[in-house]
Design brief:
The structure holds 2 protein chains of 2 kinds.
Chain A: H1 11-21, E1 25-26, H2 27-37, H3 46-58, E2 62-68, E3 74-80, H4 82-107
Helix pairs in contact in A: 1-2, 1-4
Chain B: H1 21-60, H2 65-76, H3 79-89, H4 94-111, H5 113-142, E1 153-159, E2 163-164, H6 169-178, E3 186-196, E4 202-209, H7 213-216, E5 223-224, E6 240-243, H8 245-252, E7 262-265, E8 268-275, E9 291-294, H9 298-302, E10 317-321, H10 328-345, E11 355-358, H11 364-403, H12 405-413, H13 418-452, H14 470-489, H15 492-497, H16 500-506, H17 518-549, E12 559-565, H18 574-588, E13 593-599, E14 610-615, E15 628-635, H19 639-643, E16 647-650, E17 664-668, H20 669-676, H21 679-682, E18 686-688, E19 694-701, E20 716-720, E21 728-735, H22 739-753, E22 759-763, H23 764-807, H24 809-817, H25 822-859, H26 866-892, H27 896-902
Parallel strand pairs in B: 4-9, 6-8, 15-20, 17-19
Antiparallel strand pairs in B: 1-2, 1-10, 1-11, 3-4, 3-7, 3-10, 5-8, 6-9, 7-8, 12-21, 12-22, 13-21, 14-15, 14-18, 16-19, 17-20, 18-19
Classes of the chains: A alpha+beta, B alpha+beta.
Chain lengths: ~110, ~900
């Protein structure tokens, strides 16, 4: 558990958008995909996932529809809308800027001040 | 693990395109209803799908299916939370979250039953009071008269020394013929008549209406027909009766065969023409009558006819519909031009006349204006009560919110939004107000139902349907919601300011500051309002007490009053006086009876008979030259002894002061003072009546109250009944005997004289209830509001003081431990409460005195009266003591040892 990073507030939505952008997924698939693309460093609480998914659907960033999964079970699949794709791009850029800024701030050495 | 989704199919929820519009509409309608459960099913299925997929994975690691599914469920966590959060995420299912809030609020309220009970009772009282006052206001003032097109129906009043809707019959005819503003003008008056349908003759209230009355009111009969203008052919030409629906129901048991029947009215045959529409009982809102008779037959009903007397204004009211397009202002100027015509043509009888228009339902402005003023004032006071209650509850709520600041901080720290917490607080407030409002409304409905059948004046059939209608319910609901939001809003700032870290760190005690808080302001506001209410109710109650103990100029104790109208049994002309003499003699012969006197009407009667009087020197007897107006009483020789009115000088009448002897009068002190300057000057002096009759003053009697119990001294003259006869008969029988037995003896005595004469016997002081009704009602309603105000003050101060003591237990304990004396502890604990109380009381008393001025005019009572002031002050002091007693005891009984050990 110790090697798993804590999610910063607001980053769950970004991760979901990213996961779904790689191809339509059902809820459990989203969990797995996030685990997979983060090399299992980020683990999402199962119960917290669905409210986030519903919120994104309501905001028009995701589309949901029922279909059949690889396990041959009925499942609700989520896929990115155009707005979702745009949002993902913006958020990614924002995140990168923030990460870079914080990274450079934290890398500052005493003599540089 | 490849999350493939190649095989998923779209379109499962895609509706068939091109389906009929109606079908689509129906489906969307159904979807709206099904939406909630569909959503829940959807979520349920997604959850199941998730668990299944997880279990599939777990199964692959070697678990058996059942264990895998259990494990998957455990991993997922609480389903309740899942659902709630998903609902929230989906835009929050509004109803659902409200239900949750309500459930939580109910739990919180159940946890503090004392608080809940106080809040509900406070609100129930306040909202109940408002509902009752509004329902009465609604019936009396807001609701239009129950006739077609009431908005264009206006009554005409004369602008005299006071507004007076009455007219003389000739003036009425002129107004009707000469105006260009009204479609038609109808007039009416009311009187009692004896109705004989073959069984016992009984008295019934009759509206004497002009022939066009029903047509002008645009009414249709329920049965038979109405009488019309075409039925009138001069005096006593139209012996027709129209029954009110209610009287037809109660007296004739809904018998449709009454139409065409001939009955005896005052011993004259009358034909029943028809029955009026249900609910119609004349145009006076609160007065219940039995039947309608054409006004031209007034002589048969009242015994005398004044159809031709232009200066006798006995037509109670004249009214009509304005022509389309005519404004009331235009109508008034039209009428005033007729007024100038009256002045020119009949200077002696009419003089200058100015007219006004008013609504007919409350006897024009005569009752309408004071009633409107009183009801508006009462509504305002009731509103103040509600405001005080809201202030009270607001501070309770704020105190509670402060106590719950830890809970609020914890919830905030756990990620709850402030909006969510505020919504929770508002839900609690509105819930309390709704419960309180429901209880209050229920109480007011019960009260109003009682009020609707109340008959405060047994001699006068009242009808006042104050049962609440939709408007009352809506107003009550709005007030309830408004007050819920009002007192719910008080702690908002507090919650918004809450800093979770500070509160959790510091504990609750540190938040109690010494600065002026919203709670303090609210408490002062509330005490001020209560001070106003208490002062006004003191003014009213004291005014009533004074009125009750004032010198009336007659003695209503130990006297019975028998009233009748001899015309009801067919007496007229000389027969009236001889019957009156026989009645006096017969009643005087009853053992134990001391005095018997007769008057055409007693003082403080519902009506009085004012007449202009002139000095002996005046020759031009137009109204403008009158020396004064005096109330005229026509009395028998024994009247003064029987009434208990003291004769100050001169003599009373004897039976020899009759038609053939010189005209004489006894006047009261005020008359003597105003016309003659003094009593000695008055004795033997002469004055004149409007018709020129010279009358000699033979005696002077003490002043009395004649029109209202609070009037300013008014001139009055007493004329011998032999010289100014009247069929209207009031017999005052004075005796020390048991009133019950005396009444029975009087009844059989009069019945022996004439079995066909309806009459009514009542102790005189009972009869005065009618005159005191208004004052009593005002004092009662103000008293009730005052008591409510006091109760609210007590709970408000108590709540504040108790809260302050409990908050500062620790500090007080330390003070006691350090050797503080009792006074010092009390000052520390309750000084604040007393400061606020003193401040609020002072403001309340000042405002109350200002408000009391309005009432003072009603009661002739000075609000600066030391008794009123002292009483109000004492009451506020008592309220303060009462409210702080328990918190003070608690503060004094603090045991520092126990307290410090507990901390």
């Amino acid at each position: 558990m110790t090697d798993q990073a804590q999610l910063l507030p607001g980053t769950l939505d970004l991760l979901i958008l990213k996961a779904v952008s790689l191809g339509p997924l059902h809820g459990y698939g989203v969990l797995l995909r996030i685990g997979q693309i983060s090399d299992r460093a980020l683990l999402i609480e199962q119960g917290a996932l669905y409210p986030a998914l519903f919120r994104l659907v309501r905001q028009g960033l995701l589309n949901a529809s029922w279909g059949t999964s690889e396990n041959n079970r009925r499942a609700k699949f989520y896929e990115l809308t155009a707005a979702g794709r745009k949002r993902l791009q913006e958020e990614t850029e924002g995140w990168n800027r923030l990460a870079a800024a914080i990274g450079s701030a934290l890398a500052t050495q005493p003599e540089e001040v | 693990m490849e999350p493939a989704c190649r095989r998923h199919r779209f379109g499962a929820r895609n509706p068939t395109r091109g389906s009929m519009k109606l079908l689509a509409y129906l489906r969307s309608l159904a979807a709206k209803f099904l939406h909630r459960s569909q959503l829940a099913d959807d979520m349920e299925e997604e959850l199941r799908s998730h668990i299944q997929h997880r279990a599939d994975d777990l199964e692959r690691t070697g678990m058996d299916r059942a264990a895998a599914e259990r494990q998957a469920r455990i991993e997922f966590g609480g389903q309740g939370r899942f659902k709630e959060e998903c609902h929230e995420a989906l835009g929050g299912n509004f109803i659902e979250s409200i239900i949750n809030d309500v459930r939580y609020a109910l739990r919180m309220l159940r946890k503090s039953p004392g608080f809940t009970l106080t809040a509900v009772v406070t609100l129930a009282l306040a909202i109940g009071a408002n509902a009752v006052v509004f329902a009465v206001l609604n019936t009396l003032i807001l609701r239009p008269l129950n006739v077609p097109q009431p908005e264009s129906l206006w009554a005409i009043e004369r602008k005299a020394s006071f507004v007076d809707p009455s007219q003389s019959y000739p003036d009425y005819l002129d107004l009707r013929e000469r105006n260009r503003s009204f479609e038609d003008l109808a007039g009416y008056t009311a009187d009692e008549a004896g109705l004989d349908t073959g069984q016992n003759p009984s008295s019934v209230w009759v509206v004497l209406a002009t022939g066009n009355y029903f047509d002008e009111l645009r009414l249709q009969p329920y049965l038979g027909r109405f009488f019309h203008a075409s039925d009138e052919h001069g005096p006593n030409s139209a012996p027709y009766i129209v029954l009110t629906y209610a009287y037809w129901h109660s007296r004739f048991h809904d018998d449709p065969g009454v139409v065409g029947r001939v009955v005896q009215l005052n011993k004259h045959p009358y034909t029943i023409l028809g029955v009026g529409p249900p609910g119609f009982h004349g145009t006076l809102l609160f007065f219940d009558v039995g039947l309608f008779v054409p006004m031209v037959n007034v002589e048969q009903i009242e015994g005398t006819s004044q159809l031709n007397a232009r200066d006798s204004r006995w037509v109670f009211m004249v009214m009509g519909h304005l022509k389309p397009g005519v404004t009331p202002a235009q109508a008034v100027s039209d009428l005033n031009s007729i007024g100038s015509y009256f002045e020119k043509t009949y200077p002696k009888e009419d003089g200058k006349m100015d007219f006004l228009l008013a609504r007919p339902s409350l006897y024009g402005d005569y009752l309408g204006r004071p009633l409107r003023a009183f009801m508006t004032a009462l509504m305002l006071l009731a509103g103040l009560i509600l405001l005080a209650a809201c202030a009270n509850l607001g501070s309770l709520f704020a105190a509670r919110a402060a106590d719950r600041s830890r809970e609020v901080a914890l919830r905030l720290a756990l990620g709850s939004t402030r909006r969510r917490i505020l919504r929770q607080l508002f839900t609690e407030a509105v819930l309390i107000s709704l419960i309180g409002g429901a209880v209050g409304l229920w109480g007011s409905v019960v009260l109003l139902r009682g009020l609707s059948v109340w008959q405060p004046m047994p001699r006068f059939p009242m009808i006042l349907d104050v049962n609440p209608d939709a408007k009352v319910y809506i107003v009550a609901l709005l007030l309830t919601l408004a007050s819920g939001f009002l007192f719910g809003a008080v702690p908002v700032r507090q919650v918004l300011r809450t800093n979770p870290y500070e509160v959790v760190k510091a504990g609750s005690a540190a938040t109690f500051g010494r600065r002026i808080t919203a709670r303090d302001v609210l408490l002062v506001l509330q005490i001020t309002i209560c001070g106003v209410l208490i002062t006004s109710s003191f003014v009213a109650v004291r005014g009533l007490a004074r009125a009750l103990h004032s010198n009336l100029g007659f003695e209503p104790q130990n006297a019975m009053l028998l009233d009748t109208q001899l015309a009801m049994a067919g007496y007229s002309g000389d027969k009236v006086l001889s019957m009156q003499k026989r009645m006096i003699d017969a009643l005087a012969a009853i053992p134990g009876v001391q005095f018997v006197g007769l008057a055409d009407q007693p003082p403080l009667h519902e009506s009085w008979n004012p007449s202009n009087v002139f000095t002996d020197q005046t020759t031009d007897l137009r109204p403008a030259n009158a020396a004064s107006e005096a109330i005229q009483y026509n009395i028998s020789p024994g009247y003064f002894q029987a009434a208990g009115t003291a004769l100050l000088a001169g003599r009373t009448f004897t039976w020899h002061d009759d038609k053939n002897s010189p005209r004489v009068a006894v006047i009261n002190q005020e008359f003597a003072r105003r016309i003659f300057g003094s009593i000695p000057h008055a004795l033997g002096g002469y004055f004149k009546l409007p018709d020129g009759t010279r009358i000699q003053v033979v005696g002077v009697a003490q002043d009395g109250r004649y029109t209202t119990i609070t009037e300013v001294p008014h001139p009055a003259m007493f004329l011998p009944i032999q010289q100014s006869p009247s069929a209207q008969t009031f017999l005052i029988v004075r005796s020390e005997h048991d009133p019950q037995q005396l009444a029975a003896a009087m009844k059989s005595t009069v019945h022996e004289l004439d079995p066909g004469l309806p009459f009514y016997i009542q102790p005189w002081n009972k009869r005065l209830d009618t005159a005191l009704f208004g004052l009593r009602l005002a004092a009662l309603s103000l008293g009730v509001l005052g008591v409510m105000g006091a109760v609210l003050s007590i709970t408000g101060i108590f709540g504040m003081a108790a809260y302050s003591v409990s908050k500062r237990l620790k500090e007080l304990g330390i003070r006691i431990a350090l050797g503080a004396r009792r006074q010092e502890v009390l000052r520390a604990a309750l000084g604040r409460a007393f400061q606020l109380l003193a401040f609020g009381s002072a403001a309340g008393l000042i405002l109350g005195i200002l408000a009391g001025r309005v009432l003072a005019s009603l009661y002739r009572e000075s609000p600066g009266d030391p008794l009123v002031l002292g009483g109000a002050l004492l009451t506020m002091l008592l309220i303060g003591l009462l409210a702080t007693w328990i918190p003070a005891q608690r503060a004094l009984s603090i045991n520092p040892l126990i307290l410090l050990r507990e901390e």
